[in-house]
Amino acid sequence: MALRFRRSAKFGPFRLTATKSGLAASVGAPGARVSVNTKGQVRRTVGIPGSGLYDTKIVKPRGPRAAEAPADSRPSRVESPLERRRWGKGTVVLVAVMALVIIGQAIALGSR
Length: 112
What we know:
- This protein is of the alpha+beta class.
- The chain has helices at residues 81-84, 89-110; strands at residues 6-11, 14-19, 22-29, 32-37, 42-48, 53-60.
- The protein has one domain (6-62, 86-110).
- It has a six-stranded antiparallel sheet with strand order 1-2-3-4-5-6.
- The longest helix is centred in the C-terminal third of the chain and has 22 residues, at 89-110.
């Protein structure tokens, strides 16, 4: 039998999770969440709360990516990780929705 360990704590829309392989932090609301772990992997999860139906996608895989462009079109200098980052439309929409959810929760908590 394999030994497993997982412990998490919630702070409003934020969650901090500790496992035997490392730490992870996530932000979101039921139905939409973005997580990052200590290995640098970023994951987005969307779903229908209470149904068990959800979709998870790794937005930023850990480690170096496979070659994205043919050798002819690669730049001659080395790019920094910030220069390599490319945000797709889905990621931008997800970040915008997450920001609106967090703002909505902050307003709801402030009006109590």
